[in-house]
Amino acid sequence: MRIVTYNVNGIKARLPRLLEYLAEQTPDVVCLQELKSSDETFPEAEIRAAGYGAVWHGQKGFNGVAVLARGADPVERQRGLAGEPEDEHSRYLEAEVDGVVIASIYLPNGNPVPGPKFDYKLRWIERLSDRARALLAEERPVVLAGDYNVIPNDDDVYSVRAMASDALMQPESRQGYRALVAQGWTDALRTRFPKGGVWTFWDYQAGAWQRDAGFRIDHLLLSPIAADRIQDAGVDKEYRGREKASDHAPTWVRLR
Known about the structure:
Keywords: Hydrolase, Magnesium, Manganese, Metal-binding. The protein is an alpha+beta fold. The protein has a single domain (2-255), classed as Endonuclease/exonuclease/phosphatase (Deoxyribonuclease I, Chain A, 4-Layer Sandwich), CATH 3.60.10.10. The protein contains seven helices and 14 strands. It has helices at residues 11-25, 44-49, 116-137, 160-163, 171-181, 188-192, 224-227, and strands spanning 2-7, 29-33, 52-57, 65-70, 75-79, 92-97, 100-106, 142-147, 186-187, 201-202, 214-215, 218-222, 230-235, 251-255. The strands form three sheets. The chain has a six-stranded mixed beta sheet with strand order 3-4-2-1-14-13. A six-stranded mixed beta sheet has the order 5-6-7-8-12-9. It has a two-stranded antiparallel ribbon with strand order 10-11. Helix 3 (116-137) runs parallel beside helix 5.
């Protein structure tokens, strides 16, 4: 099973790129983030025509997450996270595909620092950690896939100095991510590239793509049972270089 996380940065604007990716790579499961689409305007017909069933949790204009499955309809398990009833952001969707529990995650960016957006980011990480702990207790293959908006290590960024004041690299952001992983999750891409230097995001500004000035914020965390089945993991980097591409590249893990 090849499971992909892909922040599409607007599903309507990037639909040709997404359909191209599905046709060329035929992944089994795709977790999408930043749909920027309401539930009503999600392009279900086009995705189904490409051979994929879908569940989605939309929000007009920003956020939004989805889970696609090739030749199957994902079974939704949960949308949103407990702990903050007034939180209306569409950032978490959990589904089951072929016996594997898969969550699509769009963790808050948190800028500017300090401020209420950063405080919200840290609270959201705590709420995700609570859900992750409950999922581990199920003792099943689970994949937490998404745009975490956290650069975990110094070797996950082209320039530590350039990102030093950003919410993605603050000590509190990193500590939250590390505490989550320390529950017993395996960072799939890190197992394949233990020395880092692999990016999943390149900004549209300042020629970041042309300079390869990127960083790693798209992660796939595996429960112990899923981690036992890992075969490979990687980034489909070349899709970032295509015309009108997302600023993220599809990032994947393959399980037995």
